[in-house]
Design goal:
The chain is 32% helix and 19% strand. The protein has 168 residues and is of the alpha+beta class.
Length: 168
């Protein structure tokens, strides 16, 4: 797979070609194509039943289209499972948020980041060497970059269920 640093603004990151998805005889998607370049932001707008969620589920791997191809960074990803796509950086959010209410904002972010860690259960239980360094780097990334980007320094240590829904 190509690395993220190989891509510049304007390069195609995600491409859908002629995607078809049926549920029985109902065509949820019929010939959908889309290209998203690095640095672009897209919105998917349509009435209920138009196929917006079906398209997102095809992209993230929850659904496998009956026809068409999906490419990420130039590589065809139709065969990849959702967790493998998440490891590449493809994920989605839901309208109803699913957080661990009894944990802090920071802990919820850490849990969301765990998929990017390379250590396994055995090396993680020892917590030395590469595993320890990886955890330290992950914490630094979360605490210095993600928290700053989201501008949530003042609520990072708050328990999630105590926050207003909009802040969650």
């Amino acid at each position: 797979m190509a690395q993220a640093q190989d891509f510049q603004d304007g390069d195609t990151l995600l491409r859908l070609e002629d995607i078809h998805m049926y549920f029985g005889k109902v065509a949820a998607l019929a010939g959908v194509s889309l290209e998203v370049k690095k640095g672009e932001i897209h919105s998917i707008i349509g009435p209920n039943g138009a196929g917006k969620t079906v398209m997102m589920n095809c992209i993230n791997g929850l659904y496998k289209p009956q026809k068409g191809n999906i490419y990420f960074k130039g590589n065809q990803i139709n065969h990849l499972r959702p967790y493998q796509r998440a490891e590449l950086g493809i994920s989605r959010t839901f309208q109803k948020i699913e957080l661990f209410g009894g944990m802090t904002v920071l802990d919820n972010i850490r849990l969301g980041r765990h998929i990017h860690l390379k250590s396994g259960i055995l090396s993680g239980s020892v917590y030395v060497g590469k595993t320890r360094n990886e955890e330290i780097e992950s914490r630094r990334l979360i605490e210095e970059e993600i928290i700053d980007l989201l501008e949530i320094e003042d609520i990072r240590d708050k328990t999630v269920h105590m926050l207003p829904y909009g802040l969650q």
